[in-house]
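README: folding subset

This subset contains proteins for which both the sequence and a predicted C-alpha coordinate string are available. Records are stored as plain text. Below is the entry for DNA polymerase III subunit delta (344 residues), shown exactly as it appears on disk.
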Amino acid sequence: MVKPDARRIEAFLADPGRTRGILLYGPDEGLVRERAEALVRLAAGSLDDPFRVSDLRRDQAAADPGLIAGEMAALSLTGGRRAVRLREATDGLAAAIEAALAVPGDTLLVVEAGELPARSKLRTLFERSPVAAAIPCYADAGATLRQVIASTLAEAQVTADPEAVAWLADHLGADRALTRAELAKLALQAGPGGRVTVAEARAAVGDHAGLGLEDALFAATAGEIAAADRALGLAFEEGAQPVQVVRAALRHMQRLHLALAEGLGALSPREAAARARPPVFFRHEGSWARALGAWTEDRAAAACDRLLAAERACKTTGAPDALIAARAVLDLARTARGAARERG
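--- output ---
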Protein backbone atom coordinates (compact mmCIF):
# COMPACT_ATOMS: atom_id res chain seq x y z
CA MET A 1 0.00 0.00 0.00
CA VAL A 2 1.39 3.39 -1.05
CA LYS A 3 0.28 5.95 1.53
CA PRO A 4 2.60 8.98 1.60
CA ASP A 5 2.79 11.03 4.76
CA ALA A 6 0.97 14.37 4.45
CA ARG A 7 4.31 16.18 4.74
CA ARG A 8 5.73 14.18 1.82
CA ILE A 9 2.82 14.44 -0.61
CA GLU A 10 4.52 16.97 -2.88
CA ALA A 11 7.73 14.91 -2.95
CA PHE A 12 5.75 11.76 -3.77
CA LEU A 13 3.85 13.48 -6.59
CA ALA A 14 7.13 14.73 -8.03
CA ASP A 15 8.46 11.15 -8.08
CA PRO A 16 5.77 8.46 -7.65
CA GLY A 17 8.16 5.77 -8.90
CA ARG A 18 6.39 2.81 -10.49
CA THR A 19 3.05 3.49 -8.81
CA ARG A 20 0.33 2.32 -11.20
CA GLY A 21 -2.59 4.44 -10.04
CA ILE A 22 -3.11 7.71 -8.15
CA LEU A 23 -6.48 8.96 -6.90
CA LEU A 24 -6.71 12.72 -6.40
CA TYR A 25 -9.81 13.73 -4.44
CA GLY A 26 -11.12 16.56 -2.30
CA PRO A 27 -12.97 19.89 -2.30
CA ASP A 28 -10.26 21.92 -4.10
CA GLU A 29 -11.06 21.19 -7.75
CA GLY A 30 -8.27 23.46 -8.93
CA LEU A 31 -5.66 21.57 -6.91
CA VAL A 32 -7.03 18.21 -8.09
CA ARG A 33 -6.72 19.37 -11.69
CA GLU A 34 -3.27 20.92 -11.20
CA ARG A 35 -1.87 17.75 -9.64
CA ALA A 36 -3.50 15.52 -12.27
CA GLU A 37 -1.98 17.52 -15.12
CA ALA A 38 1.44 17.46 -13.46
CA LEU A 39 1.28 13.66 -13.08
CA VAL A 40 0.21 13.12 -16.68
CA ARG A 41 3.05 15.33 -17.91
CA LEU A 42 5.49 13.50 -15.64
CA ALA A 43 4.51 10.09 -17.02
CA ALA A 44 3.79 10.89 -20.67
CA GLY A 45 5.68 14.11 -21.34
CA SER A 46 2.59 16.12 -22.31
CA LEU A 47 -1.16 16.37 -21.80
CA ASP A 48 -2.28 15.71 -25.35
CA ASP A 49 0.07 13.23 -27.02
CA PRO A 50 -2.46 10.89 -28.72
CA PHE A 51 -0.04 7.96 -28.54
CA ARG A 52 0.83 8.32 -24.85
CA VAL A 53 -2.20 10.01 -23.20
CA SER A 54 -5.76 8.76 -22.92
CA ASP A 55 -8.21 11.30 -21.46
CA LEU A 56 -11.44 9.66 -20.30
CA ARG A 57 -14.67 11.08 -18.89
CA ARG A 58 -16.86 9.41 -16.29
CA ASP A 59 -19.75 8.86 -18.73
CA GLN A 60 -17.45 7.12 -21.23
CA ALA A 61 -16.09 4.76 -18.58
CA ALA A 62 -19.55 4.06 -17.18
CA ALA A 63 -20.90 3.16 -20.63
CA ASP A 64 -18.02 0.74 -21.31
CA PRO A 65 -16.85 -1.12 -18.15
CA GLY A 66 -13.77 -2.46 -19.97
CA LEU A 67 -12.63 0.87 -21.39
CA ILE A 68 -10.23 1.84 -18.58
CA ALA A 69 -8.57 -1.58 -18.53
CA GLY A 70 -8.28 -1.51 -22.31
CA GLU A 71 -6.53 1.85 -22.23
CA MET A 72 -4.21 0.62 -19.46
CA ALA A 73 -3.25 -2.34 -21.65
CA ALA A 74 -2.59 -0.26 -24.80
CA LEU A 75 1.00 0.24 -25.95
CA SER A 76 2.57 3.48 -27.08
CA LEU A 77 3.45 3.34 -30.76
CA THR A 78 6.20 5.91 -30.23
CA GLY A 79 7.65 4.39 -27.05
CA GLY A 80 7.70 5.80 -23.53
CA ARG A 81 5.30 5.45 -20.61
CA ARG A 82 1.60 6.09 -21.15
CA ALA A 83 -0.90 7.84 -18.87
CA VAL A 84 -4.64 7.31 -18.57
CA ARG A 85 -6.53 10.23 -17.04
CA LEU A 86 -10.05 9.64 -15.70
CA ARG A 87 -12.06 12.71 -14.72
CA GLU A 88 -14.96 13.09 -12.25
CA ALA A 89 -14.73 9.50 -11.02
CA THR A 90 -17.29 8.14 -8.56
CA ASP A 91 -17.68 4.95 -6.52
CA GLY A 92 -19.68 3.47 -9.38
CA LEU A 93 -16.42 3.02 -11.33
CA ALA A 94 -14.54 1.28 -8.52
CA ALA A 95 -14.86 -2.21 -10.01
CA ALA A 96 -13.70 -1.07 -13.46
CA ILE A 97 -10.75 0.80 -11.94
CA GLU A 98 -9.77 -2.22 -9.83
CA ALA A 99 -9.69 -4.34 -12.99
CA ALA A 100 -7.61 -1.69 -14.75
CA LEU A 101 -5.01 -1.61 -11.97
CA ALA A 102 -4.59 -5.38 -12.37
CA VAL A 103 -3.56 -5.02 -16.03
CA PRO A 104 0.19 -5.72 -16.47
CA GLY A 105 2.39 -2.86 -17.63
CA ASP A 106 3.66 0.50 -16.46
CA THR A 107 0.88 2.84 -17.65
CA LEU A 108 -0.04 5.37 -14.97
CA LEU A 109 -3.74 5.77 -14.13
CA VAL A 110 -4.61 9.23 -12.79
CA VAL A 111 -8.09 9.43 -11.32
CA GLU A 112 -9.76 12.74 -10.41
CA ALA A 113 -12.68 12.89 -7.97
CA GLY A 114 -14.48 15.33 -5.71
CA GLU A 115 -14.95 14.96 -1.97
CA LEU A 116 -15.08 11.31 -0.89
CA PRO A 117 -16.07 9.98 2.55
CA ALA A 118 -13.67 7.71 4.41
CA ARG A 119 -15.74 4.65 3.48
CA SER A 120 -15.80 5.50 -0.22
CA LYS A 121 -15.16 2.47 -2.44
CA LEU A 122 -12.69 4.51 -4.49
CA ARG A 123 -10.71 5.67 -1.48
CA THR A 124 -10.69 2.20 0.01
CA LEU A 125 -9.47 0.69 -3.28
CA PHE A 126 -6.57 3.12 -3.70
CA GLU A 127 -5.61 3.19 -0.02
CA ARG A 128 -5.41 -0.60 0.19
CA SER A 129 -3.86 -1.33 -3.18
CA PRO A 130 -0.14 -2.20 -3.12
CA VAL A 131 0.36 -0.38 -6.44
CA ALA A 132 -1.77 2.73 -5.94
CA ALA A 133 -2.13 5.82 -3.74
CA ALA A 134 -4.94 8.13 -2.63
CA ILE A 135 -4.02 11.80 -2.30
CA PRO A 136 -6.41 14.31 -0.63
CA CYS A 137 -6.61 17.80 -2.11
CA TYR A 138 -7.78 20.39 0.39
CA ALA A 139 -7.88 24.16 0.05
CA ASP A 140 -4.52 25.80 0.66
CA ALA A 141 -4.08 27.43 4.05
CA GLY A 142 -1.41 28.64 6.43
CA ALA A 143 2.21 28.01 5.49
CA THR A 144 1.21 26.00 2.40
CA LEU A 145 -0.81 28.88 0.98
CA ARG A 146 1.98 31.37 1.71
CA GLN A 147 4.42 29.08 -0.11
CA VAL A 148 2.09 28.90 -3.12
CA ILE A 149 1.84 32.71 -3.15
CA ALA A 150 5.59 33.23 -2.82
CA SER A 151 6.57 30.60 -5.40
CA THR A 152 3.96 31.72 -7.95
CA LEU A 153 5.10 35.35 -7.73
CA ALA A 154 8.77 34.30 -7.77
CA GLU A 155 8.21 32.42 -11.04
CA ALA A 156 7.12 35.75 -12.52
CA GLN A 157 10.16 37.50 -10.95
CA VAL A 158 7.91 39.45 -8.58
CA THR A 159 8.32 39.85 -4.81
CA ALA A 160 5.78 40.94 -2.21
CA ASP A 161 5.94 42.77 1.11
CA PRO A 162 5.27 40.48 4.11
CA GLU A 163 2.07 42.41 4.81
CA ALA A 164 0.93 41.84 1.22
CA VAL A 165 1.60 38.10 1.49
CA ALA A 166 -0.40 37.98 4.74
CA TRP A 167 -3.31 39.84 3.11
CA LEU A 168 -3.23 37.56 0.07
CA ALA A 169 -3.21 34.50 2.33
CA ASP A 170 -6.37 35.81 4.01
CA HIS A 171 -8.15 36.42 0.70
CA LEU A 172 -7.08 33.53 -1.52
CA GLY A 173 -6.90 29.78 -1.09
CA ALA A 174 -10.44 28.55 -1.72
CA ASP A 175 -9.33 26.99 -5.01
CA ARG A 176 -5.78 26.48 -6.30
CA ALA A 177 -6.68 27.41 -9.88
CA LEU A 178 -8.33 30.68 -8.79
CA THR A 179 -5.36 31.45 -6.55
CA ARG A 180 -2.94 30.96 -9.46
CA ALA A 181 -5.09 33.09 -11.78
CA GLU A 182 -5.32 35.99 -9.35
CA LEU A 183 -1.59 35.88 -8.62
CA ALA A 184 -0.83 35.82 -12.33
CA LYS A 185 -2.94 38.97 -12.75
CA LEU A 186 -1.12 40.61 -9.85
CA ALA A 187 2.30 39.62 -11.25
CA LEU A 188 1.39 40.99 -14.67
CA GLN A 189 0.46 44.32 -13.10
CA ALA A 190 3.70 44.47 -11.07
CA GLY A 191 5.91 43.37 -13.96
CA PRO A 192 9.24 41.50 -13.77
CA GLY A 193 11.33 42.85 -10.90
CA GLY A 194 8.30 44.52 -9.34
CA ARG A 195 7.29 44.43 -5.69
CA VAL A 196 3.72 44.10 -4.44
CA THR A 197 2.42 46.18 -1.52
CA VAL A 198 -0.77 45.62 0.50
CA ALA A 199 -2.50 48.45 -1.36
CA GLU A 200 -1.61 46.95 -4.74
CA ALA A 201 -2.77 43.50 -3.64
CA ARG A 202 -6.11 44.92 -2.50
CA ALA A 203 -6.56 46.80 -5.76
CA ALA A 204 -5.68 43.92 -8.08
CA VAL A 205 -6.94 40.72 -6.49
CA GLY A 206 -10.53 39.54 -6.47
CA ASP A 207 -11.42 38.40 -2.96
CA HIS A 208 -12.11 34.68 -3.22
CA ALA A 209 -12.28 34.26 0.52
CA GLY A 210 -15.04 36.89 0.26
CA LEU A 211 -14.98 40.53 1.25
CA GLY A 212 -18.09 39.56 3.16
CA LEU A 213 -15.97 37.26 5.30
CA GLU A 214 -13.51 39.99 6.24
CA ASP A 215 -16.41 42.28 7.08
CA ALA A 216 -18.02 39.50 9.13
CA LEU A 217 -14.90 38.92 11.22
CA PHE A 218 -14.28 42.57 12.01
CA ALA A 219 -17.95 43.00 12.90
CA ALA A 220 -17.92 39.86 15.03
CA THR A 221 -14.90 40.80 17.12
CA ALA A 222 -16.41 44.26 17.62
CA GLY A 223 -19.60 42.70 19.02
CA GLU A 224 -21.77 43.74 16.05
CA ILE A 225 -23.92 40.59 15.88
CA ALA A 226 -26.41 41.63 13.17
CA ALA A 227 -23.71 43.04 10.90
CA ALA A 228 -21.57 39.92 11.34
CA ASP A 229 -24.52 37.68 10.49
CA ARG A 230 -25.34 39.64 7.31
CA ALA A 231 -21.72 39.74 6.12
CA LEU A 232 -21.23 36.05 6.84
CA GLY A 233 -24.29 35.20 4.77
CA LEU A 234 -22.79 37.20 1.90
CA ALA A 235 -19.49 35.36 2.27
CA PHE A 236 -21.23 31.99 1.96
CA GLU A 237 -23.16 33.24 -1.08
CA GLU A 238 -19.85 34.25 -2.68
CA GLY A 239 -18.52 30.72 -2.24
CA ALA A 240 -16.61 30.76 1.05
CA GLN A 241 -16.20 27.22 2.40
CA PRO A 242 -17.01 26.47 6.06
CA VAL A 243 -13.52 25.29 7.03
CA GLN A 244 -12.08 28.33 5.23
CA VAL A 245 -14.35 30.59 7.30
CA VAL A 246 -13.18 29.02 10.56
CA ARG A 247 -9.51 29.23 9.55
CA ALA A 248 -9.91 32.90 8.61
CA ALA A 249 -11.62 33.53 11.96
CA LEU A 250 -8.73 31.84 13.75
CA ARG A 251 -6.14 33.98 11.92
CA HIS A 252 -8.18 37.08 12.74
CA MET A 253 -8.34 36.18 16.44
CA GLN A 254 -4.62 35.41 16.53
CA ARG A 255 -3.99 38.83 15.01
CA LEU A 256 -6.22 40.43 17.65
CA HIS A 257 -4.54 38.45 20.45
CA LEU A 258 -1.13 39.68 19.30
CA ALA A 259 -2.39 43.27 19.14
CA LEU A 260 -3.71 43.01 22.71
CA ALA A 261 -0.41 41.56 23.93
CA GLU A 262 1.41 44.50 22.34
CA GLY A 263 -0.88 47.04 24.02
CA LEU A 264 -2.36 48.48 20.83
CA GLY A 265 -5.63 49.11 22.65
CA ALA A 266 -4.05 52.12 24.33
CA LEU A 267 -3.41 53.82 20.97
CA SER A 268 -5.68 55.92 18.80
CA PRO A 269 -7.85 53.92 16.33
CA ARG A 270 -5.73 55.03 13.37
CA GLU A 271 -2.42 54.20 15.04
CA ALA A 272 -3.75 50.86 16.37
CA ALA A 273 -4.82 49.94 12.84
CA ALA A 274 -1.50 51.00 11.32
CA ARG A 275 0.58 49.05 13.87
CA ALA A 276 -1.42 45.83 13.60
CA ARG A 277 0.26 42.93 11.81
CA PRO A 278 -0.73 43.06 9.02
CA PRO A 279 -2.07 46.64 9.14
CA VAL A 280 -5.86 47.02 9.26
CA PHE A 281 -7.51 48.61 6.22
CA PHE A 282 -8.87 52.07 7.04
CA ARG A 283 -12.55 51.14 6.64
CA HIS A 284 -12.20 48.65 9.50
CA GLU A 285 -10.43 51.05 11.90
CA GLY A 286 -13.55 51.62 13.99
CA SER A 287 -14.38 47.93 14.35
CA TRP A 288 -10.76 47.14 15.19
CA ALA A 289 -10.69 49.79 17.91
CA ARG A 290 -13.94 48.48 19.41
CA ALA A 291 -12.54 44.93 19.36
CA LEU A 292 -9.38 46.05 21.18
CA GLY A 293 -11.59 47.63 23.81
CA ALA A 294 -13.83 44.59 24.23
CA TRP A 295 -11.37 41.70 24.31
CA THR A 296 -8.68 40.68 26.77
CA GLU A 297 -5.73 38.42 26.05
CA ASP A 298 -7.33 35.59 28.04
CA ARG A 299 -10.64 35.88 26.22
CA ALA A 300 -8.88 35.97 22.85
CA ALA A 301 -6.80 32.91 23.69
CA ALA A 302 -9.91 31.00 24.77
CA ALA A 303 -11.65 32.01 21.52
CA CYS A 304 -8.68 30.66 19.53
CA ASP A 305 -9.05 27.33 21.33
CA ARG A 306 -12.76 27.20 20.45
CA LEU A 307 -12.00 27.98 16.81
CA LEU A 308 -9.42 25.18 16.65
CA ALA A 309 -12.09 22.81 17.97
CA ALA A 310 -14.56 24.14 15.38
CA GLU A 311 -12.05 23.52 12.58
CA ARG A 312 -11.65 19.90 13.70
CA ALA A 313 -15.43 19.53 13.84
CA CYS A 314 -15.81 20.90 10.29
CA LYS A 315 -13.51 18.15 9.02
CA THR A 316 -15.57 15.38 10.63
CA THR A 317 -17.42 13.30 8.04
CA GLY A 318 -21.12 14.10 8.09
CA ALA A 319 -20.75 17.16 10.31
CA PRO A 320 -23.00 20.19 9.52
CA ASP A 321 -19.90 22.24 8.69
CA ALA A 322 -21.70 25.39 7.51
CA LEU A 323 -23.65 25.53 10.78
CA ILE A 324 -20.48 24.92 12.81
CA ALA A 325 -18.68 27.75 11.00
CA ALA A 326 -21.58 30.19 11.39
CA ARG A 327 -21.89 29.42 15.09
CA ALA A 328 -18.14 29.88 15.58
CA VAL A 329 -18.20 33.37 14.06
CA LEU A 330 -21.37 34.46 15.86
CA ASP A 331 -19.92 33.12 19.12
CA LEU A 332 -17.15 35.70 18.70
CA ALA A 333 -19.76 38.43 18.24
CA ARG A 334 -21.72 37.38 21.32
CA THR A 335 -18.55 37.16 23.42
CA ALA A 336 -17.47 40.65 22.32
CA ARG A 337 -20.96 42.07 22.93
CA GLY A 338 -21.04 40.61 26.43
CA ALA A 339 -17.56 41.89 27.22
CA ALA A 340 -18.44 45.39 26.01
CA ARG A 341 -21.50 45.44 28.26
CA GLU A 342 -19.43 44.34 31.23
CA ARG A 343 -17.10 47.28 30.68
CA GLY A 344 -20.08 49.60 30.58
